[in-house]
Structures are given as structure tokens and as C-alpha cells.
Design a protein that fits this description.
- This protein has 8 helices and 2 strands.
- It has helices at 2-33, 40-61, 67-80, 88-98, 130-141, 147-160, 167-181, 194-198; strands at residues 118-119, 122-123.
- The chain has a two-stranded antiparallel ribbon.
- A hairpin with a 2-residue loop joins strand 1 and strand 2.
- Helix 6 (147-160) runs antiparallel to helix 7 (167-181).
Length: 202
């Protein structure tokens, strides 16, 4: 009889401990939902919010504010960030995704331009040499490890201006791709600070 009583006591203790464990988990979930405890999930949400803000501000710099363009930018970035290297096919596909619903000639989406273009009165690279200029750019951009080198590559990309439209937005995506690969955080250039940003290209 004493054995049975001891076993019953052990069972009650086990059950009580289980209930305490459940209560602790419930409290932990409540803490997480209030944002008091940061876990992998909340960190991911913060990173995602930062990415969306970067893309939203990047679009705004070019006077693009519609939700569809933001969604396409998110799709382009989500694809780009998974790529191990910057090569012709990656640059062209990023542009094609970003510009999917934009009002430009279909053959200009995801293809280098085949004509002249002017940026603030300055002519971009002659379209004939864009492929060779981009190949030189890839050779440098894929090996940049420091912010000053990445910034230099970004300026070089914008001087080439390989597309008929979407150069600024793709260029900032490639710049942040480089930053992440180099272990640096995403750089958000706000529309309100675009004139400071433009000074990079003087």
C-alpha cells in the first residue's frame, strides 16, 4: 500500500511540473508577442522591414511610389540576394523582374540598352561597349570587401548606365548585395537625402 501511495505522489509531482512548464511557455509566448523578448523570428521581421524600407526609399528617389513597383522590387531583391556572384545573367534578370510592369518597350526589360542615354546632361557609356564595361565591372564588384570599394563600384555602375531605365534602383540593389556579402548591413538612402547621395557622382 505504501508503494502505491509513493507512486501516486510521484505522478502528481510529474503532472505539476508539466503544468508549470506549460505556464512558463505561455508566459514566454506572451512576452514574445509584446516584443519584450527578441528571438530569431522577431529579428527576421526587423531585417525584412529594413529591406522593404530600403526598396521603398530607393524607388522614391526615382519618383516611383506605387505599390506594384514596390512588390516587383521585393521580388527582384529576394531573387538577387540568393545569387552567389554578380554576372551578366544575374544583372539582366534582376532588371527584368524589377521592370516587369513598367511602361517601357518589352525588349528593353532585362536587356542592355542599344542606344544613347543622358543623365543630368552627361552621356552614359556608349551602348556598344556596355557588355565589355560590365565585364570589367563584374571583375571588380565581385571582389570588393570594403565600403569605399563598394561605393566606388556603385558610382562606376551608374556611370555605365547599362539600361534604358531602372539603373538607379538596380544599382542600389547591387550595392547592397555587395554590402551584405562583405558582412555590412543594408544601407538605406532616403529620398529626403537624395541630394547628398547625388554628390557621390560629382
Amino acid at each position: 500500500m505504501a508503494k502505491r501511495t509513493k507512486q501516486q505522489k510521484n505522478n502528481r509531482d510529474t503532472s505539476k511540473n508539466a503544468q508549470v512548464g506549460k505556464k512558463r511557455k505561455v508566459r514566454q509566448v506572451r512576452q514574445d508577442s509584446r516584443g519584450c523578448v527578441q528571438n530569431k523570428s522577431t529579428t527576421g521581421l526587423k531585417q525584412n522591414a529594413k529591406t522593404i524600407l530600403f526598396l521603398k526609399e530607393s524607388n522614391a528617389i526615382e519618383g516611383v511610389y506605387d505599390d506594384d513597383s514596390l512588390q516587383q522590387a521585393i521580388k527582384a531583391w529576394s531573387w538577387l540576394i540568393k545569387q552567389p556572384k554578380l554576372v551578366t545573367s544575374v544583372v539582366l534578370k534582376t532588371h527584368a523582374i524589377l521592370m516587369k510592369n513598367h511602361n517601357i518597350i518589352p525588349k528593353e526589360k532585362g536587356n542592355y540598352r542599344i542606344g544613347p542615354i543622358y543623365i543630368a546632361g552627361r552621356e552614359g557609356s556608349n551602348w556598344v561597349v556596355i557588355p565589355s564595361n560590365m565585364q570589367y565591372w563584374f571583375n571588380k564588384a565581385n571582389h570588393d570587401k570594403y565600403w569605399e570599394d563598394i561605393k566606388e563600384s556603385h558610382v562606376a555602375y551608374e556611370h555605365i548606365h547599362p539600361f534604358i531605365d531602372g539603373n538607379g534602383r538596380t544599382g542600389r540593389m547591387f550595392m547592397n548585395w555587395q554590402r551584405i556579402k562583405a558582412g555590412l548591413p543594408i544601407l538605406i538612402i532616403k529620398e529626403s537625402k537624395k541630394w547628398d547621395y547625388y554628390l557621390w557622382f560629382k
